[in-house]
């Protein structure tokens, strides 16, 4: 389309068609933000006189509040998974660590006396590169996180039974050993 011929009603229809076709609201909002930025640049460059992106709230995505489990539900979930993943669930729930951070934990990252876990790396899985273990995205991602005293004994048992041996052995592994992957949890 010719930039100067794009109208507000056309943009409204474009947005409505995207939403009706099943494109998620956050994706539509981002697409609208990009289009609005392009049109603002066109106004600044005097290619058009007025930005036709005039839909109030179209650039803001309304996302539902993420559900969370209460303490009893966390323990119920942990009791429902295979034993090798029980402490994984409990640490995730009570420390807020992400999947990739937990999957990359090594034995020397766990301090049972101080009841802390040091986050120094994170696992990422991409279609092109497969599994990568890398530093957290920012310096703030490298941190030490405390875990509840009530988990110390369970974590010690987990380390003795399920973790790989040696200082750099993985704390959490798949059922057949090796690096933990997200799809280990899709079949539970």
Question: How does this model look, in words?
Answer:
The protein is of the alpha+beta class and 188 residues long. Helix content is 38%, strand content 11%. The chain contains 6 helices and 5 strands. It has helices spanning 8-20, 25-44, 71-80, 83-95, 99-103, 152-161, and strands spanning 110-111, 116-119, 122-126, 130-134, 143-146. A 3-stranded antiparallel sheet has the order 1-2-5, with no helix packed on it. The chain has a two-stranded antiparallel ribbon with strand order 3-4. A hairpin with a 3-residue loop joins strand 3 (122-126) and strand 4 (130-134). Helix 3 (71-80) runs antiparallel to helix 4 (83-95). The longest helix is centred in the N-terminal third of the chain and has 20 residues, at 25-44. The radius of gyration is 24 Å and the shape is elongated. The model has no long low-confidence stretch (mean pLDDT 90).
SSE blueprint:
Blueprint: H1 8-20, H2 25-44, H3 71-80, H4 83-95, H5 99-103, E1 110-111, E2 116-119, E3 122-126, E4 130-134, E5 143-146, H6 152-161
Antiparallel strand pairs: 1-2, 2-5, 3-4
């Amino acid at each position: 389309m010719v930039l100067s011929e794009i109208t507000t009603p056309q943009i409204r229809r474009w947005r409505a068609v995207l939403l009706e076709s099943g494109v998620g609201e956050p994706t539509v909002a981002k697409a609208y933000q990009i289009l609005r930025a392009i049109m603002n640049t066109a106004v600044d460059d005097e290619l058009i006189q007025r930005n036709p992106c005039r839909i109030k709230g179209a650039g803001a995505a309304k996302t539902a509040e993420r559900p969370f489990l209460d303490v009893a539900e966390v323990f119920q979930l942990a009791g429902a998974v295979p034993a090798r993943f029980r402490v994984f669930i409990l640490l995730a729930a009570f420390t807020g660590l992400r999947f990739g951070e937990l999957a990359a934990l090594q034995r020397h990252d766990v301090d049972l006396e101080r009841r802390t876990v040091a986050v120094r790396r994170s696992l990422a899985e991409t279609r092109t590169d497969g599994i990568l273990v890398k530093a957290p995205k920012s310096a703030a991602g490298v941190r030490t996180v405390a875990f509840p005293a009530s988990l110390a004994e369970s974590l010690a048992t987990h380390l003795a039974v399920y973790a790989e041996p040696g200082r750099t052995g993985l704390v959490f592994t798949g059922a057949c050993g090796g690096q933990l992957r997200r799809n280990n949890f899709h079949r539970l």
